[in-house]
């Protein structure tokens, strides 16, 4: 007898069958031993991967019914809320613990999206909570800037309440410092939803038909999978693209071509003197898009030649998520003039920051700027605890180890399924780009994406979607996930792809 997770309720039901191991420690349980096959995908259809165990017991949910919550959502919440109710059968989360979430019915999910890379060290991390609640808020208030700066370069720090606010401030400071106005970002980027940052953001889904972001110009994203150029050595990732590469060792033709595009933007679309270039080390909402290895180095040089400063948006990539480094920009071997951060710093608590040089910061002191809650003592206590926890839990190392394992195994699924076009990323900032077929690289249509997405959820794993065409599955979990969790997801994803291919 084996315990099998029911894909609908997530509760355990006893059925008879055999277990067989898959890719490390994840196990399949053959329901009734049935194994009906239609295609070459050698996998039984009835068996479901077993979720790794968890000792934590959530409280019983005693709140309002799902129907009532849905009614309120439809009637009283902004229509946006319904738009982002991701699933056909929505999940109503009740409680979280580390990488696990429970819905109001007590069904457990492995969270591989972490509120869009926001929960860094784990939901309700016991150590972090204890520390944050210890009441030393004022001490933390003093302590946080030095703690943060010890993890970045020498600098000056401004504390904010969100990433958009941090980027708004960064835009303002860049303009005041340089005396220039124009700011360049990559197409496909997301840097915030405020009227100013909406101009930095280059994704139609997040733009509104109102005047926004005057002075922002978007340039071609050097996307080595979907873009016009890319080969099989371009990026800093355990997995390269499936594209051919004719480059000699040490040379990257794709980088040259994309730099030419940036040069063209500089000579056609902005004045000779510019204020800044904003770039994420790995494009997050865009679908974990990576650039050729030397691109940012070359781009920073061009920007600085025109008087601009270089700004790294680390809202998603910071705090060890990319594995080899604490900050994503370090992987590109560049030193930005300004770094903006949010999300992971608060592990779910609203918090953001801008770190820059004393010279750039000085230009800001000509006027008065304040925000009521930025850097409030409670937020500082939380953020200090998060930084301590990252160090004490070995979170960055775990990102590297589990993320590398996950990507390497996902690449095997890419080789197995025609509809996986690309697997990429670093550490636990991972994208799996889905295509109609590998030859065309055309995005997999939304209905197919939704079907796989729903199936993965029904088997107990929450992932994200992104990319300009909603074609990329995004995996950016709390950085405490284990190799067993990764194997469980791999088994679930394999099965959901198999299910989809069987029906197609
Ligand atoms: C890279 C990046 N920058 C900025 C932001 C904006 O942060 P916030 O939602 O905290 O305003 C986001 C949010 O998703 C982001 O992903």
TrEMBL record:
- Short name of any one Pfam family annotated for the protein: Aminotran_3
Question: Which cofactor is recorded for it?
Answer: pyridoxal 5'-phosphate
This enzyme catalyses: N(omega),N('omega)-dimethyl-L-arginine + pyruvate = 5-(3,3'-dimethylguanidino)-2-oxopentanoate + L-alanine; oxaloacetate + L-alanine = L-aspartate + pyruvate; 2-oxohexanoate + N(omega),N(omega)-dimethyl-L-arginine = L-2-aminohexanoate + 5-(3,3-dimethylguanidino)-2-oxopentanoate; N(omega),N(omega)-dimethyl-L-arginine + 2-oxobutanoate = 5-(3,3-dimethylguanidino)-2-oxopentanoate + (2S)-2-aminobutanoate
GO BP annotations of the record are: glyoxylate catabolic process; L-alanine catabolic process, by transamination
Region spans: Disordered:
37-57
Task: Identify the GO cellular component terms for this protein.
Answer: mitochondrion
- Matches recorded under InterPro entries: Aminotrans_3, Aminotrans_3_PPA_site, PyrdxlP-dep_Trfase, PyrdxlP-dep_Trfase_major, PyrdxlP-dep_Trfase_small
| Ranges that cross the membrane | none
UniProt-recorded Gene Ontology molecular function terms: (R)-3-amino-2-methylpropionate-pyruvate transaminase activity; alanine-glyoxylate transaminase activity; beta-alanine:pyruvate transaminase activity; pyridoxal phosphate binding
**Keyword list, A-Z:** Aminotransferase, Mitochondrion, Pyridoxal phosphate, Transferase, Transit peptide
User: Which EC number applies?
Assistant: 2.6.1.18, 2.6.1.40, 2.6.1.44
Q: Which PROSITE patterns does this chain map to?
A: AA_TRANSFER_CLASS_3
Enzyme class, broadest EC rank: transferase
Where in or outside the cell?
Answer: Mitochondrion
Entry-linked PANTHER family: ALANINE--GLYOXYLATE AMINOTRANSFERASE 2, MITOCHONDRIAL (PTHR45688:SF3), PTHR45688
What is the documented function of this protein?
Multifunctional aminotransferase with a broad substrate specificity. Catalyzes the conversion of glyoxylate to glycine using alanine as the amino donor. Catalyzes metabolism of not L- but the D-isomer of D-beta-aminoisobutyric acid to generate 2-methyl-3-oxopropanoate and alanine. Catalyzes the transfer of the amino group from beta-alanine to pyruvate to yield L-alanine and 3-oxopropanoate. Can metabolize NG-monomethyl-L-arginine (NMMA), asymmetric NG,NG-dimethyl-L-arginine (ADMA) and symmetric NG,N'G-dimethyl-L-arginine (SDMA).
Similarity annotation: Belongs to the class-III pyridoxal-phosphate-dependent aminotransferase family.
Describe the subunit structure: Homotetramer.
Q: Could you tell me what this protein is called? A: Alanine--glyoxylate aminotransferase 2, mitochondrial
Question: What is the native source organism of this protein?
Answer: Salarias fasciatus
């Amino acid at each position: 007898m084996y315990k099998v997770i029911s894909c609908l309720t997530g509760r355990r039901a006893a059925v008879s069958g055999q277990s067989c191991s898959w890719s490390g420690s994840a196990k399949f349980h053959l329901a009734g031993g049935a194994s009906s096959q239609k295609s070459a995908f050698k996998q039984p259809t009835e068996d479901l991967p077993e979720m790794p165990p968890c000792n934590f017991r959530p409280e019983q949910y005693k709140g309002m019914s799902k129907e009532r919550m849905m009614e309120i959502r439809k009637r009283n919440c902004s229509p946006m809320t319904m738009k982002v109710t991701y699933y056909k059968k929505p999940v109503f989360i009740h409680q979280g613990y580390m990488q696990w979430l429970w819905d109001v019915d007590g069904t457990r999910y492995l969270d591989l999206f972490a509120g869009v890379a926001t929960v860094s060290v784990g939901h309700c991390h016991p150590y972090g909570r204890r520390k944050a609640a210890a009441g030393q808020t004022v001490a933390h208030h003093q302590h946080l800037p030095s703690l943060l700066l010890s993890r970045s370069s020498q600098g000056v720090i401004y504390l904010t309440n969100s990433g958009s606010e941090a980027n708004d401030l960064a835009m303002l400071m860049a303009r005041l410092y340089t005396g220039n106005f124009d700011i360049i970002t990559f197409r496909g980027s997301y840097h915030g939803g405020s009227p100013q940052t909406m101009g930095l953001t280059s994704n139609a889904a997040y733009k509104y038909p109102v005047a926004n972001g005057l002075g922002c110009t978007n340039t071609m994203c050097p996307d080595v999978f979907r873009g016009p150029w890319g080969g099989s050595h371009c990026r800093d990732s355990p997995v390269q693209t499936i594209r051919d590469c004719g480059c000699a060792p040490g040379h990257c033709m794709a980088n040259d071509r994309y730099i030419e595009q940036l040069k063209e933007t500089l000579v056609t679309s902005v004045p000779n003197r510019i204020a800044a270039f904003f770039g994420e080390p790995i494009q997050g909402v865009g679908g974990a898009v990576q650039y050729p290895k030397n691109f940012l180095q070359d781009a920073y040089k061009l920007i600085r030649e025109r008087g601009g400063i270089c700004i790294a948006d680390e809202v998603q990539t910071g705090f060890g998520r990319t594995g080899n480094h604490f900050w994503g920009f370090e992987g590109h071997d560049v030193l930005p003039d300004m770094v903006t951060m949010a999300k992971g710093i608060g592990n779910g608590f609203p918090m953001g920051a801008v770190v820059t040089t004393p010279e750039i910061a000085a230009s800001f002191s000509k006027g008065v700027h304040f925000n009521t809650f930025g850097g409030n003592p409670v937020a500082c206590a939380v953020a200090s605890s998060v930084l301590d926890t990252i160090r004490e839990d070995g979170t960055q190392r775990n990102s590297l180890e589990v993320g590398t394992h996950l990507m390497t195994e996902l690449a095997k699924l890419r080789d197995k399924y025609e509809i996986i076009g690309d697997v990429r990323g670093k550490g636990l900032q991972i994208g799996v780009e889905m295509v109609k077929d590998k030859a065309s690289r055309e995005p997999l249509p939304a209905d197919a994406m939704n079907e796989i997405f729903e199936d993965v959820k029904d088997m107990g794993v929450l992932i994200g979607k992104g990319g300009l065409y909603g074609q990329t599955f995004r995996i950016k979990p709390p950085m405490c996930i284990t190799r067993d969790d990764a194997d469980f997801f791999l088994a679930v994803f394999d099965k959901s792809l198999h299910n989809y291919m069987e029906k197609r």
